[in-house]
Amino acid sequence: MPRRRNPSSPAVTPGALLRLASFVVLALLVAGFVAFSAHVASLRPEQAARGDAIIVLTGGEGRLTAASELLERRAGSRMLISGVHPDVTPDELRAAMGASAPLFDCCVDLGREAADTVGNARETAAWVAEHGFDRVLIVTNDYHLPRSLLEMRAQMPDVELIAYPVVSPRPWTNAQSTRRWVLEYLKFTAVWTRHRFDEPEHI
Prior knowledge:
Blueprint: H1 14-41, E1 53-57, H2 63-72, E2 78-82, H3 90-97, H4 101-107, E3 108-111, H5 117-131, E4 135-141, H6 145-155, E5 160-166, H7 175-196
Parallel strand pairs: 1-2, 1-4, 2-3, 4-5
């Protein structure tokens, strides 16, 4: 005689399992974003930071100004601006930095090969190796630092990297900042996963 199904114990359907899995993944992503945001919001530039050289990554507000101030006070002997657009002239960059012509001409190198953060890391590693630097300051926006440092450490495991965050508007201040931080968190998660499992580089 066939067993009768207990109506009070319905079978778990594939759709229900999929919804549960989606909820768990979403909850983990939200929790991760909260932790990421809390960590980034706690980052502050160390005013006494010094290194052999200064690396500034283009693409964010305030980065060039912060790097110029570091160079002016000799926090590093030389600077690389990584990711300079091919159409941007040295004079335009110097004006954006607010640096004096003598300091810019003597101590600033322009890297024009990088088109993304992986490219920044490769360009920086080649420049650091060429000059024999052992300790460098990495200047970029605070939300961009975790991913930048992951890529830089992969390319320069023996070089000491000093983070110098440029403080940015928090994700809860406006919609644009929210989108920027969420996108950066997703990119960071992808890069962390790639390095964790040694997947091919590209993001």
